[in-house]
Design brief:
Layout lengths: L5 H26 L24 E5 L13 E5 H7 L10 H6 L10
Bound molecules: zinc ion.
The site of zinc ion (ZN) has 7 residues, from strand 2.
Length: about 110
């Protein structure tokens, strides 16, 4: 169990990205195009399975590691781009949604 306050942050992040994800899906339905990745600027395919490397994730515009605010601006990004960039967010290869769905105890896994 994390006892350093990050659990609450994870939860807030999760709520926020879920909302944003819904918004992007609605927009994609309307425009017929996916959002652009904030890192590589290519379209993100919203129909991809969450296990896909180019699945939609969210990235802080200012990385937390460089003083970014957790509540600061976020942008869509491919998971592959996001994890390559990676700064400041451990477990960047796993989306918060996967994290939420995962029922395995985190202490047993080396993330
Ligand atoms: Zn990208």
């Amino acid at each position: 169990m994390a006892s350093n306050g990050s659990t609450r942050n994870e939860w807030q992040w999760q709520k926020r990205t879920r909302r944003e994800r819904r918004r992007l899906h609605r927009e994609a339905e309307r425009t017929g195009r996916g959002p652009l990745c904030g890192i590589c600027n290519l379209e993100i395919d919203l129909s991809l399975d969450h296990a896909h490397r180019d699945y939609l994730t969210f990235d802080h515009v200012v990385p937390l590691a460089r003083g970014g605010d957790l509540d600061g601006e976020i942008r869509p990004a491919h998971r592959s781009c996001n994890s390559r960039r990676g700064a400041g967010r451990p477990r960047a290869t796993m989306t918060k949604q996967q994290w939420a769905r995962s029922e395995r105890p985190r202490t047993l896994l080396d993330w």
